[in-house]
Amino acid sequence: MGRNTRKRRTPLAAKAIAASAALALGGGGLIWANFYASAHESNNQTWGGNQTKAATAQVATISCPDVQQKLTNVPNTARQGVATELANLDKQITEAYTRLASTRDAQAKDPSFVQNAIVGPLKEKRAATIDRIRIDIQRVGGSFDNAIQQLAACTTQTANQTTAGGNGGGQQQNNGGQQQGGQQQANNGGQGGDGPSAADFVDITKVAPNVQGKPNRTPNASTGTFTTRCGVNANQNHNSDNVIVAPGVTNGAHHVHDYVGNQKVNAFASNNTFLQGGTSCQNRNDLSAYYWPVIREQDGTQEKDANADGGGKDLNVGKILVAQQAQIKYVGSPASKVVAMPQFLRIITGDAKAFVNGPANANAHWSCTGFENRVQLTDKYPICPAGSKVVRSFAFQSCWDGQNIDSANHRTHVAFADPGSGVCPNGFKAIPQLTMRLVYNVPQPVIQADGTVKNAYAVDGFPEELHKAITDHDDFISVTTGGLANRIANCINSGRNCA
Hints:
By secondary structure, the protein is of the alpha+beta class. The chain contains seven helices and 27 strands. The protein has helices at residues 79-102, 104-109, 113-139, 183-187, 271-275, 354-357, 484-493, and strands at 18-20, 30-36, 44-47, 50-53, 56-63, 155-158, 201-203, 225-228, 238-239, 257-261, 289-293, 295-297, 319-321, 325-331, 346-350, 366-368, 381-383, 390-395, 399-400, 414-415, 429-430, 433-440, 446-447, 453-454, 457-459, 473-477, 497-498. The strands form eight sheets. Strands 16-18-22-14-8-27 form a six-stranded mixed beta sheet. A five-stranded antiparallel beta sheet has the order 9-10-11-26-15, with no helix packed on it. Strands 1-2-5-6 form a four-stranded antiparallel beta sheet. The two termini are 36 Å apart. The model is unreliable at 1-61 and 156-191 (pLDDT under 50).
């Protein structure tokens, strides 16, 4: 995979102090704070392919373990309460990030400020929240691993990079603090150092081909496809909830979603709501919910949510772009026939916190029309050539445990097939694999001489994730009527291409 090696030097006035907080603090991740000292101290630091000429007075990384991923066995009767507390952890992180970003002067003057005023109180809040999770679980007779209580602690260490990784061009490094003196805000639509940065973009024509071949089909393969046409959310059905991860919690996602298919999806929706929700799909029996974080063009435009939760309040700014195409297709397994998806099955693919959690659950795919069969990026946004458009694609987990429509961490009830053979793990059944392809007409980003990005675009996300491309994700709830789930499976198993 190619790497964006463009470098820049940022001159700072002698004796000036730029205290820039480029932070990532996740429910299981990192706080990241960079403080730049006087420019007369000559110390060159290279981060994320961009060279910043400044002395690093302090680079602090605080790692906070991911609580949600450790909760794999929560009784059904406790899940609502646990989900609410997990959302509280996210809220605490966002508040800590906002405080870090708004106290730069204090941080520059007092080396202990971050620990005493932000990280220490955050640990106390996390400890209390985790204890409420314990109570919720034990109250209904569930078991709680007391080791989870230790996940409240955040450790401080010096660091100049993170290890999100991915195959889009090496490690994700310190890309957020490099925009100083309002430079990022002036050129990237008010993102104000929260990303994206120049190192988050790559000219796709300079990236080596990396697309791998598909597994060979067996005689029992299911070779058909089923396409459902549900539009592109032209009616602007948006909210910043996430009914899968944070049911009953307003602004549980801290970023805005596009919704197609079911039209009644919000934090308070239930399975009964979905059945009565109506649909944007041409097939009126497809009441499934398909939703993904919006993309915004960072052109300085104030979107209607500029002062709202999920939008400007969560540092997601700029004009929301509507996809020109949204292809939703179910495909089969190269190794076996598929069984019908169960009603109300929930699947999340990708990880909205992949920048701080690491790439284990990341499943972002970025490319350009004309390049999709050659190049797929996971941790970079593509700069497409003239006449080519940005493409986001998703391939969901295609194996189901045969019993559960969801799991406590929203992952263990489904799995990916083996990439070499296409065979599901033991105990899992092949289901129709949901694939999605979103195409956008995005102005071509330009890396300017001063290292800022003109025409930047970025996916919405948790503010502490710095709008990294690797955090792209997609959500799905299967809701069908009139036997549609069986018809999809039968079509795929018979080798037909249906719509």
